[in-house]
Specification:
Layout (H helix, E strand, L loop, with lengths): L1 H13 L1 E6 L16 H15 L2 E8 L8 E5 L2 E6 L15 H14 L4 E5 H15 L3 E4 L4 H6 L6 H13 L2 E4 L2 H11 L6 E3 L14 H7 L7 E5 L8 H10 L6 E5 L7 H14 L6 E4 L7 H7 L2 E4 L8 H8 L4 E4 L4 H4 L6 E4 L4 H13 L1 H15 L4 H16 L7
Parallel strand pairs: 1-2, 1-5, 2-4, 5-6, 6-7, 7-8, 9-10, 9-12, 10-11, 12-13, 13-14
Antiparallel strand pairs: 3-4
The protein binds uridine-5'-diphosphate (UDP).
């Protein structure tokens, strides 16, 4: 009898459906170039993990090309729905005026087949989610991924309208997902978020792909010789600091060391940053020591991480830093900037080094340390893999599923 009641309870908790909003970029897009990066991986992996945890997920994204089907079943219980809103080729900066049209399209879908909760990603989706919350009387969860005021503090100002929109939505969200305590503190200090509505749910890493493996085999697979390899993975834009990575290589003492840069230009400053990276390569005469690889399908990156001796993440700000986690999961030490989520993903002196400066020489000193002491790098890589073992998408999904269920039973926040 007791067993039956428990089963009944579990069943009622799992009968949940979520409408995940990902307005400006699709979880089906290749990450690492254009507007596609960590958020795409987050939405795709989380939707899959939620689906496997019994939550039916529909991800709503803007129709960005004419040849897209209306809906794509990604795996059982997980569907991507392309919502027509504005002309297909709009840049991210041009999207604010079409947010309401997007919300209308999602509302039509949800009136046909409802959801128990709205989960918005990034501020544009959060604004759409806020409209939908009031129209459909549904709880709204937001994951912001980046925050305008945090970006402004690191030298990347965003339009005032974004700050206002984020402030408005933070005040009316039923729950906000933060990746870590650093982001939670930023939400409270910079936006006045109610701490009781913040849920810390760190992203995960898929260890079926990202796990320690054969270093030499990975090098052979990529056609690399035995030079020490520093790896940079990510979108090419000033925020990610690829120029710092090149200038750091220029200052590394070992002349055999090489840098591999995987990713492509992103956002309105992407091409400018790409040009600065190329200029730095020319200026330091590094053409035969820096190689560029187009953005790679996510799982293929594990081979690059395993082939590397050290992974460098010189970002100006980082709400989480999936690249640092994936590198750690592959047993590689990380030299990262001491910013945002990287401070929670790199244990200084244990799994890599945190650099509290934008100075390439400081990054070079840490890279030298790991290149010149392979046994130390190996030990740090092992510690990094242990640290990464604490992160999984199924844990993230489990937390969110519980939170969705709690919200369904709560009175909605009003503004
Ligand atoms: N990525 C990828 N292919 C690439 C480059 C990057 O799949 O060629 C993925 C990478 O594995 C990571 C994400 O893009 O999961 C970048 O996330 P991160 O949090 O490091 O940065 P963001 O893009 O969110 O600023």
């Amino acid at each position: 009898m007791v067993t039956t009641r428990c089963l009944a309870l579990q069943w009622s908790e799992t009968v949940t459906s979520a409408a995940v909003l990902s307005l400006h970029t699709s979880p089906l897009a290749l990450a690492g170039v254009g507007d596609s990066g960590g958020m795409n991986v987050y939405v795709r992996e989380l939707a899959g993990a939620l689906g496997r945890a019994g939550v039916t997920v529909r991800v709503f994204t803007r129709r960005w090309s004419d040849d897209l089907p209306e809906r794509v079943v990604v795996e059982p219980g997980v569907e991507v729905v392309h919502v027509a809103a504005g002309p297909v080729g709009l840049a991210k900066e041009a999207l604010p005026p079409i947010v309401s049209e997007f919300a209308d399209g999602v509302a039509d879908e949800l009136l046909r087949a409802s959801a128990d909760v709205l989960h918005a990603n990034y501020w544009l989706s959060a604004v759409a989610g806020h409209e939908l919350k009031h129209r459909l009387d549904l709880p709204l969860v937001s994951t912001f991924h980046t925050l305008a005021r945090v970006k402004a503090d690191s030298g990347d100002p965003e339009p005032a309208a974004r700050v206002q929109a984020e402030t408005m939505v933070v005040g009316c969200c039923d729950a906000i997902c933060a990746s870590n305590t650093v982001e939670a503190t930023q939400l409270v200090d910079l936006y006045g978020a109610d701490p009781s509505r913040i849920e810390i749910a760190p992203p995960g890493v898929d260890r079926a792909y990202f796990s320690p493996g054969d270093h030499l085999g990975a090098r052979r697979a990529l056609g690399l010789d035995d030079h020490p390899i520093v790896l940079f993975v990510g979108r090419i834009q000033p925020l990610k600091g690829p120029t710092v990575a090149v200038e750091a290589l220029a200052a590394v003492k070992n002349p055999d060391a090489r840098l591999i840069v995987v990713g492509g230009p992103s956002g309105s400053e992407g091409v400018g940053e790409w040009n600065r990276v190329q200029q730095a390569v020319r200026q330091h005469q590094l053409a035969d020591r820096v190689s560029f690889v187009d953005a790679q399908p996510h799982h293929i990156l594990s081979t690059y991480y395993r082939a590397a001796d050290v992974v460098v993440v010189p970002s100006r700000s980082e709400s989480f830093g999936l690249v640092a986690l994936e590198a750690a999961a592959c047993g590689r030490p990380v030299v990262g900037a001491a910013v945002g989520g990287l401070r929670t993903l790199v244990e200084h002196g244990h799994t890599g080094y945190l650099v509290d400066s934008r100075d390439p020489l400081e990054f070079a000193t840490r890279l030298d340390d790991l290149i010149d002491h392979p046994a130390r790098a190996e030990a740090m890589g092992r510690a990094a893999a242990n640290l990464a073992a604490g992160f999984s998408w199924s844990t993230t999904a489990g937390r969110l599923r519980r939170m969705y269920s709690d919200l369904a039973a709560r009175t909605l926040v009003r503004c």
